[in-house]
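Hi team, as promised in this morning's meeting, here are the two structures we talked about. I've kept the exact order from the run log so nobody has to guess. The first one is mostly here for context; it's the second one we should focus on when we meet again. Sequence first, then the predicted structure tokens.
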Amino acid sequence: MSTPTDISMADVVDVSAYPLGDHADPRYRAVVKSCQTRLRDYGIVELPGFIANDARNYICAEAERLARFGNHTSGTSSVYSLVSEAGALSDSRFPADHPRNFPCRTAVNAVAYDLIPEDSLLRRLYESDEMAQFIAHAFALPSVHRLTDPLYPLNVVEYGKGDRNDWHFDGGRFAPFTVLLDIRSAESGGDFEYVPNVRSKDDENYDAVSRVLHGDRDLVHGCPRAAGSLLLLVGTRTLHRVTPVGEGRSRLIAVLSYSPHPGMRVSDHFLRARFGRTS
């Protein structure tokens, strides 16, 4: 493949299957239509083989190097992303055994945006207008915008032994959707599981959420672990988790953050909790 200083979108994305930028291509239109349908009906869609074959090993090696500079954090929050300043889980409007007060344990190693080299393939993907346009089309939005804070727009996240992200909904701080790139699967554990569209703005569906939180797997789906896959998720209404990682190789993903609104950034409180710093 080309050197990192002379790369095109075709060096990063499998444009034979996902012709980003060519909006008139019937293949592009078919992918967008499929994404919109599945996101509407299920709140999630996986795009296997999104990253070109030649780029996968390069991105994996790059992410593995970057993970050494990540900030490892662990803690407990709410399934609904309600965290007090002291880190305690509390919502007095609901009883102690209510899903709103169910603990979500998280332990991850996160690499901030400012540590990812400007010539990396991951940055080429995230910062490309073609990618932003595709994300907007997939979620049936007029446009999306990259975040403006220095740390959160693009992250490499590693799940090592014992790391996890228990059942939760995304908080929707800047967007109701999430974009994840699967870089490397864990050798043991680290599976992505989800309950599609279990919650809506008109119905919290606490009964179903409670059943899942207490071990009922009738509604639970899993995503195959496949390096190079892109996952689009309406995380505010789709319950999801990453199971604990076991022995052996860690799991590596990239989180690409966009917003329907320009000029959005993550709060200093969240940045400090995630990276131990705000700038």
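And here is the second protein, the one for discussion:
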Amino acid sequence: AARGARQAGSARPARETRPGPEVRRLPNPRLTGLGSGLFCAGAMFLLGCLDQLLLGASPAAYGVLFLPVCVLTALWVRDGDVLTAPVVLPLAFAVGLLPVAESGGGAVGRLMGLVTGLATEAGWLYGGTLVAGAIVLIRRAAWVRSRRGHG
């Protein structure tokens, strides 16, 4: 009993933790494949509407806004669904191009404006998809490597 009391008495007091400065981190959601598609399609449609409203439907501005959406989609999709990101991005680009594309009147005019917009802005589409594809391949390789290490 004396030995137990001596050990208890000689134990160092627990360190007090002081609250430190609050560190803010960027959001790090993990979206499913469908969730990433809905995220980037919704974001691109809203950005397309904003582009139409503020900049008068500038295709170059729309293309520049597409790049961060590509990066975020590639980073936020969960590891198991990471290969869906480069697939949903061109679809989201087309959805967001609807408010930006010129329309000559009616459904046929809107469709022709969309096709023309896709043709003339293909550089932004390919560039954003290529950036997302590179991010996805790096993430997928790291995920496969970590799974092999545990299995």
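Starting points for discussion:
The chain has one domain: 30-150.
The two ends are 48 Å apart (CA to CA).
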